[in-house]
TrEMBL record:
Domain N-acetyltransferase: 17-163
Renumbered residue ranges of the record's region Disordered: 143-163
Molecular function as annotated in GO: acyltransferase activity, transferring groups other than amino-acyl groups
Organism (species): Streptomyces ferrugineus
Protein name, UniProt field: GNAT family N-acetyltransferase
Keywords: Acyltransferase, Transferase
PROSITE patterns: GNAT
Basic and acidic residues bias (residue ranges): 147-163
Keyword Transferase set for record: yes
Classification lineage: Bacteria, Bacillati, Actinomycetota, Actinomycetes, Kitasatosporales
Pfam families hit by this protein: Acetyltransf_1
Length: 163
């Protein structure tokens, strides 16, 4: 089985399905940890409807979709914050496909997209409970930094030069 990664319109049915899976997983983890419940389905639908993802479209961004054996498996977003700084966001891979190299390929593809946009560094934030993500970013050369935003859900911030 092989992996591919390619840009995808952020409003496509594939992107919408991956966004729903991503949001459900990270939201459920948060609510189960902090409130002992899963995400309310109505909240999920409101959150999805509220995002147009315009920042994940050229010329200032991109949504990348990973496919495994031609089936949508995950996604990663990149958006330019300024002329030199790209932000990696919404990195997600369906759980049964984790550990097969797809997440690393997604992040590396996002880094390449950032370079193509002219970025010289990539930043990101994540939460404490997303240990797999923090482990991946560290393994790929990201260094933890002081906060670069005031996102109420962010607990760890990372940066990596894009040479």
């Amino acid at each position: 089985m092989t992996w591919t990664v390619a840009p995808e319109p952020p409003d496509s049915p594939v992107a919408t399905a991956l966004w729903r899976a991503y949001y459900t997983e990270v939201s459920d983890r948060y609510y189960l940890l902090h409130q002992g419940r899963r995400t309310d389905p109505a909240e999920l639908e409101r959150e999805i409807a509220a995002h147009t993802f315009g920042e994940l479209q050229p010329p200032k961004g991109s949504l990348l979709v990973a496919r495994y054996a031609d089936e949508p498996a995950g996604s990663a977003g990149i958006r330019m914050l300024d002329a030199n700084t790209a932000e990696l966001t919404r990195v997600f891979l369906h759980e049964p496909l984790r550990g097969k190299g797809g997440a690393q390929l997604l992040v590396q593809s996002a880094e390449n997209a950032g370079r193509a946009f002219g970025a010289t560094r990539m930043i990101l934030d994540t939460r404490h409970d997303l240990l797999e993500a923090r482990t991946l970013y560290t393994r790929l050369g990201y260094q933890e930094t002081p906060p670069h935003n005031d996102d109420p859900y962010a607990e760890h911030w990372f940066s990596k030069p894009l040479h």
